[in-house]
Amino acid sequence: MTRKLFGTDGIRGRSNSEPMTALTALTVAVAxxxxxxxxxxxxxxxxxxxxxxxxxxxxxPALVAGFTSVGMDVVTVGPLPTPAIAMLTRSLRAxxxxxxxxxxxxYDDNGIKLFDPDGYKLSDEVETEIERRIDEGATSGLSPPDxxxxxxxxxDAQGRYIEFVKASFPRGRRLxxxxxxxxxxxxxxxxxxxxxxxxxxxxxxxxxxxPDGFNINRGCGxxxxxxxxxxxxxxxxxxxxxxxxxxxxxxxxxxxxxxxDGDQILALIAGSWSRDGRLRxxxxxxxxxxxxxxxxxxxxxxxxxxxxxxxxxxxxEHMRSNGHNLGGEQSGHVVMTDYATTGDxxxxxxQVLAVLTQNGKPASQALRVFDPAPQILRNVRxxxxxxxxxxxxxxxxxxxxxxxxxxxxxxxVRKSGTEPLIRVMAQGEDxxxxxxxxxxxxxxxxxxxxx
Length: 451
Prior knowledge:
This protein has four domains: 6-157, 3-Layer(aba) Sandwich (Alpha-D-Glucose-1,6-Bisphosphate, Chain A, domain 3), CATH 3.40.120.10; 167-258, Alpha-D-Glucose-1,6-Bisphosphate, Chain A, domain 3, CATH 3.40.120.10; 262-344 and 356-366, Alpha-D-Glucose-1,6-Bisphosphate, Chain A, domain 3; 375-449, TATA-Binding Protein (2-Layer Sandwich), CATH 3.30.310. It has helices at residues 22-36, 56-69, 82-91, 124-136, 157-166, 192-199, 226-235, 262-276, 292-300, 312-322, 345-359, 363-366, 392-405, 431-449, and strands at 6-7, 10-14, 44-50, 72-79, 96-100, 109-115, 151-153, 179-183, 203-207, 239-243, 250-254, 259-260, 283-287, 304-308, 326-328, 334-336, 375-381, 409-415, 421-428. The protein is α/β, with parallel strands linked by helices. The protein has 14 helices and 19 strands. Strands 1-2-6-5-3-4-7 form a seven-stranded mixed β-sheet, sandwiched between helices.
C-alpha cells in the first residue's frame, strides 16, 4: 500500500485544505488511537503539543475529539518544541505523542507529527497501517459512551522540558560571561529557549519571541538567519543560535555574523565526543545532502560517515539499528540519542556552547571545523498535480549530468517531503562544474513544472 497522507516528516499541507483540515485531523486521530490502543482494560494516553500557528487552534481540538472518541485520554501542553513532545510521551508513559507543526514552513502551512511510546517518529510501516485504518472509515472502532476519553492540561510541561534540556549540559559548568543571541523563530521555543540560557548564566539577547499566529518563521529563525546575523554583530554577542518553528533544528552564527550549518555542528560534536570516548558506533550518521568536506574531515579523525536517504527519521532509524549516538542533517537537525529521541535544536546548541566554554576560542575559530567542498542547492517550486521528476527530459538531464560528474561529484534530485518543491543539489571538487550541473537540471525541471 502506497502512503497518501504521510511524507518524510508526518502529514503536512496548507491549513484548512486537504490534508490539513479538521476533518482529516480527526480521522487521523481515530485511526492512530485505535492502532496504539491495546486490548487490555487500562486507560490509554495521547500527548498533544503544538507550535504557534493560528491553525493550531483548529487542529488541536479535532485531534482531541478523535482520540477521546476511541477511548484515549489526552494531555495537552500548548506551545512546546517537537523534542519536548517526544520526551513527554516517554515520561508520561503515553501510548502516542502528537506535535502540531509544519516545522520551518510559513504560518499558512501546518502538519501532524506522530511519536510512538518510546518517543520515536513512526516507521513507514506504522504510517501505512494508520492509513489503512483511515480507509476503513472514521466511525470504525468508536468507544461506547462509558469508555470515552478525558482531557486535561499539563501545567508544568515547560518546566519539565527546561530541566530535561539543562541536564544535557556538563554538570558544574555555566555560561557566565557569555553573550548569546537566540532566535526562536516566533515558534514553539519562544519561552523555553531563552529561559534555559538565562538559568545557565548566559547574557541572553532574545529574538523571535513575540508570536502572533502569523509570524512564525517569517524573516527569522534557522531558515532565515539574516536578522540573527545582524543582531549578533550589533550587540557584540559571542554566538548566535537560530531555531526553526518547532525547534528541532539549529543553525549557528559566529561572533562575526557568519553562518555555521548542521554539517559543521556535527563535525564539532563528533570531534569532541571522539576525544572524550563518548562517540558510539564508530561513526556519524548523516544524509546524502551532507558535504564531502564533512566526510573527509571525519575520516581524518578515524570516524566513519554513514549516509541515509534524506529525512531525520531515516537518520534515527539507522542510528538505532547500528548503535550510533550522533547523527543529523546539514539543515540543522542534530540527533544525540544519549539525550533525545529526535532532533533537538536547543540541546544541540548547548553541546556547541559546551565546546565553546571548554576550549576558550572565539566561535569563528572553534566552530569552523572543516573547509566545505563546493556545493549548490536550488529549489524549484511546482503547483497542482504536476510531477516534474517523471518527465522524460528531466530524467535525461539527470542522467547526462551524473555522467559528466562521474566520480568527481554527486547529484541529488528529489521531491521535498514537506513542501511542493523539487530540490536539486550537486557537490564536487570544481565549483564551476557543480554550478553548471545544478543549472542544467534546474532548467529541465522548470520546463517540466511549467507544463
